[in-house]
Amino acid sequence: MTAIAKTFSVLDRIRTYQSQMPATMAKIAAVLIDDPKAPLNLSITDLAVRAGTSAASVTRFCRMIGYGGYSQLRVGIAEDVGRGGAKAAWIGEIGRSFGPDDSPDEIRNALLNTHVLSLQTTAGLLDMPTAIRVAGAIVKARQLDVYGVGGSALTALETEARLYRIGVNVHTWAEVHNGLTSAAILDDRCVAIGISNTGRTDETIQMLTVAKASGAHTVAITGNPDSPLARLAHDVLIAASPDGYLQPADLSARHCQLFVVDLLYLLIAQSNFDRTTRFLAASGAAVAPRRRPMRGGALPSTAARRATAQT
């Protein structure tokens, strides 16, 4: 890999370790993600006050992400700030895992590794009792609303496509006015899911807020367990996307979100096997006439065609 692919910024390190941080360190991470240059203008004590923690916690935070102490962290941030030009543009648009001079084989391997790492991280962080509880709530729900904007809207649509086919009354909302309208008429027999990689998408937070106020059981699918969306929801399912993946963030999060959605789909399908198989068979039969037969499988054999031609 090139030097670009091997260079990890302070933010890269923070995002990589963020999901493993205790609450005190997660507060420091949140401050630095919101204001990466803060340590250049703040003493260690000032940063601790801003994060609502202690100077000792800041020192432990620095060591956790690979720096000897606060001074070394500040040097790392200063170096990050000093980088610019074409390299910064490449990193901003493509990401750090892929260098502009990498061979096709290196790109393929790096892409595979980041996909596998993201899925493994998501699987490891998923709280199964929570996933089971969410699936059970959806099974019993009168209506399921799913909110997502931008890249997360595509995940929301996939959620609708999977669950509607097995009998869940699910509606997807990417436009905030329509989503707020639906959220306002939910009740305690409904479930609402907000999907956002950062957990900071205002429109998604607004829709889930109204759904919660209406009495619905709320769920967040997000990569940030300390985000406003996560704090709002009754249940949180983590879809981790370690930094260094493709940019923008919606690309890096999509597979992790779909992993969570597929898990819910299978848990829901299992809960009522007879209904699931009946609906899948009915929907499969409905679209079967529009599919071309498989080559050599569904077509008559050569002998059969010859016999037909001779009659």
Automatic annotation (TrEMBL):
Q: Which InterPro entries match?
A: Homeodomain-like_sf, HTH_RpiR, RpiR-like, RpiR-like_SIS, SIS_dom, SIS_dom_sf, WH-like_DNA-bd_sf
Q: Which residues form the HTH rpiR-type domain?
A: 8-84
Q: Which UniProt keywords apply?
A: DNA-binding, Transcription, Transcription regulation
Q: Name one GO molecular function term.
A: DNA-binding transcription factor activity
Q: Which GO terms describe its biological process?
A: carbohydrate derivative metabolic process
Q: Where is this region: Disordered?
A: 291-311
Q: Which domain of life is it from?
A: Bacteria
Domain SIS: from-to ranges:
134-274
What this protein is called in its record is RpiR family transcriptional regulator
Which species is this record about? Devosia insulae DS-56
